[in-house]
Amino acid sequence: MLTANTIRTALRLRLPMAAVLIVMAALYLGLPYRSLDSDVATFGLMGEDLYRLGYLPTLTYGQNYIFSLTPYLYTFFRFVLPADTPTPITLALAGSVLSLSGLWLVYESFLAVWRRSATPHPITPLLFCILLLASPLYIFDLSRNSSIELSLFTLGGLMFAASRIFAALHERKAPSPGWWVLAGAMFAYAAYSRPQICLVGLFLLLPLAYQLLRNVSASAGFRTVFWLLAGGVLGWLPLLLHRLWRAPLWPFPTTLATHLNSWHGIREACQMLGQEILPAIFGLNADHPLRYAVIALWLGSALVAFFIVLKKRKADITVLDYAWLGGFLTLLLIMALETNLTRNATGRRYCLHIYLAAVWLFCRFAVRPGWRNYAVALTAAVTLFSIPRWIELTRAEWQDNLWIKAVQNHLIPELRAQHAVILANYWDAYLLAFLARGQLPIEAVPWDWVRTYGLLRENELRGRTLWFVSTGYGHSTADQLRAHFGPKVLEHKTDLPLQTKYFGRACELWQLPADADLVALMKKCQPRYFTTPYPPGARHDLRKNL
Question: What number of other Cβ atoms are within 10 A of residue 385's Cβ?
Fold first, then answer.
């Protein structure tokens, strides 16, 4: 029964996380332009498709993004917000709802198991939230809403369902079927969108299912398997519907290229783990070696406290604690061995939540009697060392925000004034298309990236065509065009060079040769992943229904 005292306690425990979410929401909505690139903008274009009653968003080059929930929320906000709301703000709002919801579900899971600890203390949830804010890189990356929401929302849903199943089993009750359905749906969603998160799901669901089979009848166990499978079908159903538009059912390669065949490969993987993955996750700088020491003490404390509790009071360790430790250590090992995933931002994208796992373990086990003052001091030290990084990242993101805002306000009108079809590098084309709300005749070069998200009809490519070049991204586009047109492509510089800087870089328009057969070039290049035909009766380009 709810009383005034229990309500006050519940609110007090959630106030620290509410403060974290307010900070993150301020980053999302206060700097909505700074995180945009063509990857992120493609989510917005998928949302625009839905908003204008077009086809389902099956048309993105990273096919595991197909059922990201961001485009669907984007569409909802496009309907309810004023028509003149900038599209980057709408996209930031959609991403923030998903990421913040996922983080809140993780926190609720933490509270559920923390309350069943032998020695709970009110300061523990506060330290959990302080340590989240102590990593500006984690907070900033969550607020970029490109693909992090896929993993965080799924992870939060899995942890929340598991915490409710664990609570019921702890009280020797049969868990509600709804929690098994939620767990199955989140697991199926992770299997398609972020398969690495399935590692944590396995560490969660297998022990819980085993406990259930030990403590209840066989018929209840069969019912549990049924509800799990029902949730899995529910989580996979939207993807089966997307199959009608020829989206792949399994978009990932079936092999994992590792380097276990020699000691050199193992040493290289460990070196990459220490020099690339962990520093990226924890936002460490090589010129601050003391920061490494503080983080090492912090992580070491969490692991030492975990094994002390494991030896003395094993009952205090829950399935969720095992899942954080075992699931993410396994993920870290895979990421270290798969060099293709650790040499670019993809590695950080998958490993980012290892920081969240470390915060969980530290606050669950290091904040105990005899350790509490030490844990508070370490939390203060970690937070103190994060302040310079917060200032550095905030300045950089603020500058990016101003540049992209200038692109929307000045560069887009300049491009429209050219009255010509514009080609651009992938990283420019879809960003500019999204900022222009689809009202810019622009196409990406090379077409083997997101060909099926082209905005132009074939006959539009037979008119006057300009090539958008910005310093930094221009070389790959230049190489692609030179391969088909030869060096003469650079002999036709337009008389109207652009004035607006793009991300602080100069940008120009170069006119392509009049005899360039762009349609043949488009047909010759094959999509990088697959070609999705336009559905029967659907429009051919985004601008038709404007």
Answer: 19
CA–CA distances in Å: residue 3 to residues 8, 112, 120, 167: 9, 19, 21, 21
Amino acid at 499: Q
Report helix, strand and coil shares of the chain as percent, to nearest 5: 70, 5, 30
- Contact partners, residue 289, CB within 8 Å, separation at least 6: none
Per the structure block, which two tokens stand in for 139? 């907070």
Instruction: Tell me the C-alpha distance between 541 and 49, whole Å.
Output: 10
> CA-to-CA distance for 70 and 432, rounded, in angstroms?
19
Quick one: CA dihedral 90, 96, 99, 100, positive or negative? negative
Q: CB under 8 Å to 353, separation ≥6 — which residues? A: 151, 152, 155, 328
φ and ψ at residue 489, rounded to 5 degrees: -60, -25
At 424, which helix (H) or strand (E)?
strand 421-425
Of 322-326, 347-351, 370-374, 445-449, which range is least confident?
445-449
CA proximity to 40, closest of 127, 137, 145: 145
Q: What is the largest CA-CA distance in the chain?
A: 80
Q: List, for residues 175-206, the tens digit of each pLDDT value.
A: 888 898 999 998 988 887 777 788 888 999 88
ω into 535 cis (within 30 of 0): no
* Ranges of H-type helices in 328-460: 328-337, 339-342, 345-351, 354-361, 372-406, 412-416, 426-435
Please list, in sequence order, all residues whose beta carbon lies within 8 angstroms of the beta carbon of residue 354, skipping any fewer than 6 positions away.
281, 328, 331, 332
The angle that helices 87-114 and 354-361 make with each other, rounded to 10 degrees, is 30
* H or E stretch covering 357: helix 354-361
pTM over 0.90: no
The pair of three-digit structure tokens given for residue 366, joined into one six-digit string: 């290091």
| Strand-strand pairing, 507-511 and 465-470 | antiparallel
* Spacing of C-alpha 339 from chain mean position: 20
Q: What pLDDT was estimated at residue 159? A: 93
